[in-house]
Design brief:
By secondary structure, the chain is mainly alpha-helical. The chain has helices spanning 2-49, 89-92, 102-115, 122-125, 149-152, 157-166, 181-194.
């Protein structure tokens, strides 16, 4: 009798272990399935959300279309009358000392779009440089439209440098006295590309 009881207990223990092992395997399958499901859901949401806009990433701003008040769309005024004072001749005739490399253009873009203080250039000049930024509506004369080839071909790099450094009295253009020379030249290269033919 004791032997039979011991055998029954042994059989029960084996059955419990078998069930436990099956349950443990089943539990692992559930965990693996849940992890794969979460991963798949994340992938689907990433695809539906589009590309991320993490640090250092930008939309192709010149192709983006939005409300003109944000500076995203519209042609702006072209040609534009000029209300800025003429830079001294030695400054006006000064060429840009930087080569227009990808690094220089990217640095200029970062300054124009985000980094210049107290306010980024795009606030008035627009994200696409068309002079239709969010602050443009209250300014008279309106901000410079850098997309206008007719206007921009008459303005030397030295003149642009002088205006960025000293501002333009009688307009909304402030002086950026604390901006390093190199950064101003980078911005000027970036401004020049607005009037160039756009790649489709």
């Amino acid at each position: 009798m004791i032997y039979n009881l011991s055998c029954n207990m042994q059989a029960n223990r084996m059955q419990i272990l078998k069930v436990f092992n099956m349950t443990e395997g089943f539990r692992k399958q559930i965990i693996v399935g849940a992890v794969l499901g979460i991963f798949a859901l994340g992938m689907v949401s990433e695809v539906l959300a589009g590309p991320p806009m993490g640090y250092g990433h930008r939309h192709h701003l010149r192709n983006f279309r939005g409300h003109h008040g944000q500076g995203f769309a519209g042609d702006g005024i072209c040609p534009q009358d000029r209300f800025t004072a003429q830079a001294p001749e030695d400054i006006s005739n000064r060429p840009n000392p930087l080569e227009p490399s990808q690094e220089v253009l990217y640095a200029g873009e970062s300054l124009f779009q985000v980094d210049v203080q107290p306010a980024a250039c795009k606030i008035c000049h627009g994200v696409t440089g068309n002079g239709l930024g969010i602050m443009a509506q209250g300014l008279n004369p309106p901000p410079r439209n850098f997309n206008c080839k007719e206007t921009m071909k008459e303005i030397s790099d030295g003149q642009l440098f002088w205006i960025i450094r000293n501002g333009s009295p009688g307009t909304g253009m402030p002086a950026f006295k604390d901006l390093e020379d190199k950064k101003i030249w980078q911005i000027i290269h970036y401004l020049r590309q607005f009037a160039e033919p756009r790649r489709r």
